[in-house]
Amino acid sequence: MIKQVIICVDDEKTVLKSLKTELKDALGNTYRIEIAEGGEDALELIAELIEDEYEIPLIISDYVMPDMKGDELLRRVHQLSPKTLKVMLTGQATIEAVGNAIKNAKLYRYIGKPWQTEDLKLTVTEAVHSYSQDKKLAAQNAELRKINQELEVALEQQSKLTEAAKRFVPNEFVSLLSRDTLSDVKLGDSVEKEMSILFSDIRDFTALSEGMTPQENFKFINAYLSRMEPGIIENHGFIDKYIGDAIMALFGHSAVDAVQAGISMLHSLDDYNQYRINAGYGPIKIGIGINTGSLMLGTVGATNRMDSTVIGDAVNLAARVESLTKSYGVSMLITQNTFSKLTNFPLDFIRNIGHVRVKGKSNLVTIYEVFEADKPEVKEGKSRTLPIFREALYNYSASKHKEAAQLFGECLQQNPLDQVAQNYLERCQEMQSLLAPNRG
Question: Is the pLDDT of residue 17 over 90?
Answer without folding.
Answer: yes
